Amino acid sequence: MKAVLGIQVGHDAAAALVIDGRVVADVAEERFTRVKNDSSFPLHSIEFCLKFAGMKSVDLDAIALPSRYLNPEVPVFIDIPNDRLPAEDRTLASRVKQSVLNYVAPGRGPATTLPLYQKPIALGPQCLVELVDHHRSHAASAYYTSGLNDERTLVVTMDGIGDGVAVAIWKGENNRLELLKSWGAESSLGWFYSNATEALGWRHGSDEWKTMGLAPYGTPKAGALDGFHPMFEGGELKQGHKYTGGGAWLDHSAYHYHFDDARPLADIAARLGREDFSAETQRVFEFQAHELILPWLERVGTRHFCGAGGAFLNVKANQNLWYTGKLDTQWVYPNPGDAGLAVGAALSVYFKYNPRARHEQLRDLYLGPSYSDDDIRRVLDERGLAYEHVEDPARTAAADLAQDRILGWFQGRMESGPRALGNRSILMSPVKAENKDIINRCVKYREAFRPFCPSMLGERAGDYLVSSREERFMITSFAVRPERKAAIPAVVHVDGTARPQTVRKDINPRYHDLIRNFGELTGEYAILNTSFNVKGEPIVCQPREALKCFFDTGLDVLYLGSYRLQKPKRPQV
Ligand SMILES: [Fe+2]
Question: How far apart are CA 318 and CA 381, in angstroms?
Answer without folding.
Answer: 46
